[in-house]
Design a protein that fits this description.
heterodimer, A: 262 residues, mainly alpha, B: 331 residues, alpha/beta, four-stranded antiparallel beta sheet, 11 helices, 34% helix
């Protein structure tokens, strides 16, 4: 089983590594880091802050967008191009195929997040700001976010077209990012709106758990430039993300299992 | 009961069109069986249900009804897929891989050890004639080369049953002969080969049994010898005509010799002085030869004409289409 899943993951990694858009995104992120270097020079004694903000935002934003892009296309093209006919007629379960595709994507995304993080670290060192534990935790949280978003995208891709899957995944990521704000707003609304919002938000992955800088947790302000969350929080958030990933992949595998490949 | 590689009973598949939800019956109670160690040809016109049957057997499509077993395992079966090699119709592979990597991927999915994968890939790539193209990515392959690459990956697990959907498609005559030879070699090694095709001469040349499918229903099933009628369907004649001469033909009337000799023929073709024709089965051949000699023609060849698989195919497929045409013609 592991061998088959690994074979699919490795093949997916090779496939994704050939997508030129990824190199465009890489250039964009490296460019934004360069821009942060310039903006840091223009700001008074805030070069490190600018570098951290731009670097972490780049990992989260471009990492998540890449996850959606890969998630909605890689599974869909297997079916559309019929490459899947050669694969699922071998002794491999469809769930193994879905998991293999996801792991291959996760591998690509991990490499990308790693390169984005490296670019940010280089920038911080150049600025003389140094790399704090808070930055490391924030990078790990962003990595969890990207992996969760990839699972959202692959779930929609198991039954829908790339366009619709992209829209749905983007919407879920955006809503998941602002869930606490939506809940706070709903508290001020009529009871039925409050209840409806609460139920609706339950089916959206809590992506906001991975973007905590600038928020208030347990009454205390959290910032990557100051007091940040503990590693235990990072671990819990990761476990929460893993739960969503497993659930979304299980649903995707179930839907994929029922499909006819004509 | 014979040891069966494939056993299909009353297989049905109904699709619904995306928006109108209209039912489309792709398979309508297909029943047939394939004994182990045989070459089985599955033939039918476009849209007959060949590929749907194969995709159902391979687990790509879920049947609406009926049942099937592959190598004794009821569908869907991963245990059966471990012993099956499959080449899809008009295969599309990961075009960034080369043929060796494609075979390696197939070998990994079959759970083969790295050394076995490498050895089998080398052997098969040479066997399908792609040794010179090993380093090229599949993106640069022609349709025929892709077909060969597909055959190589399908045989990586040394399968007991080989299922090939249109394996001759896109191949030149030499490529087709090589695939035919490969299929025969597999049979000689005790493998079962099930393949679909449009090319009836290939079926006649190598199959032990055939099935004809049209409009989602099996029209005929058996050995080629059982299926085609052995009765004489006509007489094929080739004659060399005498140089044209003015005046009446051998019967003494005003009709020319050509016209008299071709009268009543089912098929006539003339190339230069050579006349090739098929006489009706009830023609008095002796009298006809005498007339030809009287007209100065020389008989080059004469042979009884039996029904071919192509005749049977056309007859059965036309028969299957007739009820549908009648149905459409109803007011």
């Amino acid at each position: 089983m592991i061998g088959r899943i690994w074979a699919i993951a490795l093949n997916t990694f090779r496939e994704a590594a050939r997508i030129r858009v990824l190199y465009g995104i890489l250039v964009l992120v490296l460019g934004s880091n360069g821009l942060a270097l310039v903006l840091g020079q223009l700001s008074a004694h805030e070069a490190g802050r600018v570098a951290r903000d731009v670097g972490l935002a780049g990992i989260s934003l471009f990492g998540s967008l890449t996850a959606i892009f890969l998630g909605v296309f890689l599974l869909y093209t297997e079916v559309a191009r019929r490459t899947i006919h050669t694969i699922v007629t071998k002794p491999i379960s469809r769930w193994e195929f879905v998991v293999g595709k996801y792991l291959g994507m996760a591998l690509v995304l991990s490499v990308l997040v790693g390169v984005f993080a490296l670019a940010m670290i280089v920038m911080l060192v150049v600025q003389g700001a140094g790399v704090s534990g808070a930055v490391a935790k924030a990078v790990v949280l962003s990595w969890f976010e990207v992996l969760t978003v990839a699972a959202i995208a692959i779930f929609f891709s198991s039954f829908s077209t790339p366009f619709l899957s992209g829209i749905f995944a983007l919407a879920m990521w955006a809503i998941g990012r602002v869930t606490p704000d939506l809940e706070a707003q709903a508290q001020l609304a009529a009871p039925w709106i409050r209840i409806t919002t609460k139920i609706a938000l339950e089916i959206v992955p809590d992506v906001h758990l991975f973007a905590v800088s600038g928020r208030t947790l347990d009454g205390a302000a959290v910032s990557v430039h100051g007091d940040f969350v503990a590693w235990s929080y990072v671990g819990l958030a990761g476990a929460h993300g893993l739960g969503w990933i497993v659930a979304l992949l299980a649903l995707a595998a179930l839907l994929f299992h029922r499909r006819d490949f004509v | 009961m014979a040891d069966l590689a494939i056993d299909v009973h009353d297989l049905t598949k109904t699709y619904r069109t995306p928006f109108t939800r209209r039912k489309v019956e792709a398979l309508r109670g297909v029943t047939f069986s394939v004994e182990r160690g045989q070459i089985f040809g599955f033939i039918g016109p476009n849209g007959a249900g060949k590929t749907t049957t194969i995709r159902t057997l391979m687990g790509l499509v879920r049947p609406t009804g009926g049942r099937a077993t592959l190598l004794g395992h009821a569908l869907p079966s991963r245990a059966a897929r471990e012993k099956i090699g499959f080449l899809p119709e008009a295969p599309y592979f990961y075009d960034y891989l080369d043929v060796g990597e494609l075979c390696d991927l197939a070998g990994r999915l079959f759970g083969l050890a790295p050394r076995v994968r490498a050895q089998r890939a080398d052997e098969l790539i040479e066997k399908v004639g792609l040794g010179q193209a090993r380093g090229q990515s599949l993106k640069k392959f022609s349709k025929g080369m892709l077909q060969r690459a597909g055959l190589a990956q399908a045989l990586m697990n040394d399968p007991e049953l080989v299922v090939l959907d249109e394996p001759m498609s896109g191949l030149d005559p030499i490529g087709r002969k090589e695939v035919r030879d490969l299929i025969l070699e597999l049979r000689d090694r005790g493998k079962t080969v099930f393949f679909s095709t449009h090319i009836l001469s290939d079926v006649e040349a190598i199959t032990d049994r055939v099935a004809i499918i049209a409009r989602g229903q099996l029209q005929a099933h058996g050995t080629p010898a059982e299926l085609v009628s052995r009765s004489v369907q006509g007489v094929d004649v080739i004659i060399r005509l005498a140089p044209p001469a003015a005046g009446p033909g051998p019967d003494g009337d005003a009709e020319t010799a050509d016209a008299q000799l071709t009268r009543g023929a089912v098929r006539v073709r003339r190339v230069g002085e050579e006349l090739s024709l098929t006489l009706a089965a009830d023609t008095d051949v002796d009298a006809w030869i005498a007339r030809a000699h009287a007209a100065g023609a020389r008989v080059v060849q004469i042979a009884p004409r039996h029904e071919t698989l192509e005749d049977l195919f056309v007859r059965r497929v036309a028969g299957a289409d007739r009820p549908a045409a009648e149905e459409r013609a109803k007011p």
